[in-house]
Amino acid sequence: MTTPDTLPSCSTMQNLPDEALTQVAAYFQALSEPTRLRILNMLRQRERSVGELAQLCGFSSANVSRHLSLLTQHGLVQRESRGNSAYYSIADTSVYALCDLVCGTLARQYERQMQAHAPFVAAPAAPAEPD
To answer: What's the predicted TM-score (pTM) here?
Structure first.
């Protein structure tokens, strides 16, 4: 088990100036909205148009466009115009490694919570036997 004293060091982060740390925080803020995470998951499969993403998300094209604009601003997705349509794809695939790492950590935490609560969950009652 790792403790704060034995956690791996991120020398890259330790050497960043305050301005760069502000950019790192903004990057994480871009990932802090569930709709944007859903969009990134949909783009994991293949590039998609704004209209297609809107339909899959169940939101308006304007709403999805705002999210895509922010993701583009942070270098997570890229935009390509084709005729009257704009298509978006992933610009930085490392975001999936980051998201998978976080999701794996949360899944392990959830599993530990479920195991801790298991003794307190009553087993379903056996069906009554007919007379």
So the answer is: 0.71
